[in-house]
Amino acid sequence: RIIVMLGARMKKTGKSDWKFPLINKKLGGKPGGLPVEISGGDSRMRAISIIYQDYLKNPKPDKKMLVLVTGGRDELGYSKSSQAKNNLVKKYGLPKDIVKSLGGVGSTLGNARAVFEFIAKNRKSFGQIKKIEIITNDYHIIRAWIMFVFEAFRLNEGNQSTSRRIKIPDKTIIKIGKILEASLGELTSQPALAKIIKIMSPYLKDAILVKPVIAENIIAGSGFIGKVYSGSIIRNKWVQATRKLENKGTVSFLKGKYG
After folding, report:
1. Angle at CA 145, nearest 5°, toward 202 and 30?
2. What does the longest C-alpha to C-alpha distance in the chain come to?
3. Rounded to whole angstroms, how far apart are CA atoms 162 and 154?
4. What percent of the residues of the chain are helix, what percent strand, and what percent coil, each to the nearest 5?
5. Is pLDDT above 60 for 154?
6. In what order do the strands lie in the sheet with 131-136?
7. Cβ(164)–Cβ(153) below 8 Å
8. Beta-bridge partner residues of 213
């Protein structure tokens, strides 16, 4: 079972302590952006720790768990994926040998490429990988899922890299854009995500299945405190504003105007 944690911004809080906050005021205020930057790494780690605890309760000897942590480097050159791995091990209790820091560049598309390059390079060790799970926040899940399925399509049935590309008709891209626009009237991205997955499924045959896992859903399922915490993330005004920017980025990517 391969679980991928999407890279996130981090903040140093001591000589060797790092946090991955939801809101980072220092990195906001960029042209065309918001006065704050939204990320959410701590919530993603919390969700992964819950998944791991559930895994321990229902162990399957023939199904090992591997957590791949992505993320580039921060402004000072520190590796976000390495620090996230340290937090997952030291703070959240995951065994060191099941967490792998992949690095990559500091973008969602870069995260996706790092994951599938890793799978292709290690295909002899893993055997044929048919599915991965990606964990990120609700505001980010649609763009992340789309970028990951595009990269997943590059690998053939033997998990070898190829040059093939998904070709999405313009009319389908327009339809997805309308779904994303309408979704801003809803509290979460989940209804729109379900519709987009259904629309794109015919174009994803013979590719590794990418299962989207929303961190807030996992945390909310852990109990009352988790539900309150998750709700506070989703309802945050800056998170909702970021969803709008994410949706624009998703459409730009589908039109071939992204990276």
Report:
1. 135
2. 52
3. 5
4. 50, 15, 35
5. yes
6. 99-103, 66-70, 2-5, 131-136, 209-214
7. yes
8. 135
pLDDT at position 31 is 65
Give the H/E segment covering residue 65.
Answer: none
| pLDDT band at residue 26 using 50, 70 and 90 as cut-offs | low
Q: 179-222, pLDDT tens digit by residue?
A: 999 998 899 999 999 999 999 999 888 788 999 999 999 999 99
Contact present, 27 and 9 (Cβ < 8 Å): yes
Task: Write the single-letter amino acid at 142.
Answer: I
Confirm if 41 and 105 have CB atoms less than 8 A apart.
no
- Extended strands (E) in 137-232: 209-214
pTM score, whole prediction: 0.91
| 158, containing H or E segment | none
For residues 6 and 134, is the Cβ–Cβ distance under 8 A?
Answer: yes
> Of 1, 147, 8, nearest to 88 (Cα)?
8
DSSP state of 34: -
Q: Please report, as a single letter, which amino acid is at residue 56.
A: L
Residue 43 pLDDT level (bands cut at 50, 70, 90): very high
- Could you give the CA distance from residue 233 to residue 227 in angstroms, rounded to a whole number? 10
CA dihedral 71, 73, 74, 78 (to 10 degrees): 120
Torsion of CA 210, 212, 218, 221, to 10 degrees: -110
Side-chain-side CA neighbours of residue 114 (13 Å)? 22
CA-CA distance, 12 to 18, in Å (whole number)? 4
